[in-house]
Amino acid sequence: MNNPNFPKLGPIIIGTSDIEKAKKFYIAVFGLVIESEDKNYVSARGVDGTHIELEEDSENRFPHWAERNIGTYKNSEFQVPDMKLFLETVLKNGGKIISEPVSRPWGDIGAEFTDLDGNIFLVSQK
After folding, report:
1. Nearest to 124, CA basis, from 101, 96, 92
2. Which domain of life is it from (predicted)?
3. Total H helices, total E strands in the chain
4. Phi and psi (nearest 5°) for 24?
5. For residue 95, what are the CA distances in angstroms to 36, 86, 115?
6. Domains defined for the chain, CATH in brackets
């Protein structure tokens, strides 16, 4: 069914309490390429073209934005070719591994890690 009113996926938004530290972390860990930035905002692309935005709280945000967007679980799965190398990079740049890599029944390996603000991500290796 092709309905012009169906939503399309926009950027993955990652809340942060320190935009400069987050920018360094995501460039080092995700290989982000910055497209534009402002005082409380960075627009970037991942290596596969995925649009990712890093955002700090500001007067332009919804009420309670920080508590709902910083240090929360991000319902996205990032895929890497080498789990061990990726998680070493996370740790080297200040992130934490909160769920060690495990083999999953459908054939991949999954783990969970956090960034500097405690945002939680799922990562998998096929």
Report:
1. 101
2. Bacteria
3. 3, 8
4. -60, -45
5. 24, 11, 5
6. 12-125 (3.10.180.10)
pTM for this entry: 0.91
**Phi/psi of residue 41, nearest 5 degrees:** -155, 140
Write down the residue that tokens 């054939």 correspond to: 107
User: pLDDT tens string for the chain (126 positions)?
Assistant: 778 888 888 999 999 999 999 999 999 999 999 999 999 999 999 999 999 999 999 998 999 999 999 999 998 999 999 999 999 999 999 999 999 999 999 999 999 999 999 999 999 999
Residue 89: closest CA among 80, 62, 105:
80
* Residue 107: both structure tokens together: 């054939």
Rounded to 5 degrees, what are φ and ψ at 123? -130, 140
Residue 45 sits at φ, ψ, to 5 deg, of -125, 140
